[in-house]
Amino acid sequence: MLNTLGGITFDAYGTLVQLENPFELLREALKRRGYGVPLEVVREAFVQEMIYYRANHMEGKDTDSLYALRKRCASLLFDSLRERGYECDLRADERVTVLIESIRFRPFPEAAYVLSWCHSQGIKTAVISNWDCSLPAIIHGLYPGNNFQAILVSAIEGFDKSGPELFIRASEELDVPAQKILHVGDDPEHDVASPLKAGCKAVLIERDGGFAEGLSKEKIRSLTELPDIANRLFNIP
Q1: Range 7-18+106-233 has CATH code 3.40.50.1000
Q2: Beta bridge pairs of residue 181
Q3: What DSSP string describes the chain?
Q4: Which of 75, 78, 195, 230 could form a disulfide with 202 if both were Cys (CB 3.0 to 4.6 A apart)?
């Protein structure tokens, strides 16, 4: 197998990592501080924060810049609540604490099996994600004992998954030619088009089964399907 498939790279959010219900967690965090906010209002405000974070996550490249980014995200979140009629009089640092309490990650249950399969077959693994500098600690916390050869984070590396650069960097870090790497993720552009540009193969995961039209002919609903599709793509008997 090492002569064909040399490495598998994984997207983080939506592939290895999922959010617990952030809207309910935020509502509970506010309630503990004496502010009752309807769930729908919480949802609308939090979605605005998420949009802002995605657009600006590259700014969180180290501890100080990440905290500054979180302060801006928290400020936007509480401004959105105020605009909807719910003023929450909290200090800036307490607002950041509320935001952090509302963001809790957990692994997808089948991911550990697939990572174990990779390691048993001698396949190197890496994570490639559009994220801030906190991702390595999150991955190590959720997947203890799984020794990824690389965790490549856009905010740290200086470029995101909209182009092939992170995938080329992964090939270098793994010391595996791009054509011997399979990437799996849930975004048709970032997790299919970009790795293909780098020379990798790519698989799109869509857990709801509503497969979008796009470049990838290879699509799965669960990571449990990955070993079979990897064997087929790399002609492994």
Answers
A1: yes
A2: 7
A3: -TTT--EEEE-SBTTTEEE--HHHHHHHHHHHTT----HHHHHHHHHHHHHHHHHHGGG--SHHHHHHHHHHHHHHHHHHHHHTT------HHHHHHHHHHT--EEE-TTHHHHHHHHHHTT-EEEEEES--TTHHHHHHHHSTT---SEEEEHHHHT--TTSSHHHHHHHHHHT--GGGEEEEES-TIIIIIHHHHHT-EEEEE-TTS-PPPSS-S-EESSGGGHHHHHHHHTT--
A4: 195
- CA 153 and chain centroid, separation: 10
Domain edges within the chain: 7-18+106-233, 21-103
